[in-house]
Write a structure and sequence with these properties.
There is one protein chain. The chain is globular, with a radius of gyration of 20 Å. The chain is about 40% helix and about 25% strand. The chain has helices spanning about 45-50, 70-80, 95-105, 110-120, 140-150, 170-185, 195-200, 220-225, 230-250; strands spanning about 5-15, 15-30, 30-35, 60-65, 65, 80-85, 155-160, 185-190, 205-210, 210-215. The protein contains 9 helices and 10 strands.
Length: about 260
Amino acid sequence: MTNAIETQGLTRRFGTFTAVDSVSLTVPEGTVMGLLGPNGAGKTTLIRMLLGVLAPTAGSGRVLGFDLRKGAEQIRRHVGYMSQRFSLYPDLSVAENLAFFGRVYGLGGDALARRQEELLIWAGLADQRRTLAGDLGGGMRQRLAFACAILHRPSLLLLDEPTSGVDPMSRRRFWDLIYGMADGGTTVLVTTHYMDEAAHCDRLAMMNAGRIVAVGTPRELQETYGGGGGLDRVFVNLARMGDEAAAAHNPGPDAGRGTGRT
């Protein structure tokens, strides 16, 4: 099976702070890979490197066969990206947002018009085409942002906490859209804090303190790290292990000193 994403020792530093620390990760084509970790774990920084908008400090990687360092433009043409902030223009209508992003991706004329209409129906937004994006509810804004991300039929979707702040019904509908894309052969890398969503990924990568601390199917991770609990217990246990490893790797100024107690 061909890998959509391959990284080896991928690292990003900001001054003396290491946001992503020697990450080696493979994501096979057609896989829904969940990326989990606490806030500040490095997930967004990793996605920005995979998207080609942030250069690695060290290490290497390929996305859809393109080198991260040399093929950033090609990567962005073949990858769809959606963040939790839903990068939409609130003063443009639903249809106008689709048209704008379509032109950004190089679509135009009848091809853009057909794709726009197709996505309006697919996302359940046909009746809202003239509504300003800023006037939509959270779930509808989410679906519009997703439609904008897939206008150019990307082979890979990078979704950074795409369900944050929306209601459970909207989350469920959104994941139905993700599964539909995956069934069509699109590879998906998605960050999430919701364990019910993580349970439905093909594979999970657990990240903490900039490092990948475990990779496997949800069942494999539960059996290895769950201690008889579910993925929430896996998350807590791996976060604790990652914190301990980070402390050992970056000891504080008092490391090695005695407390003076006997």
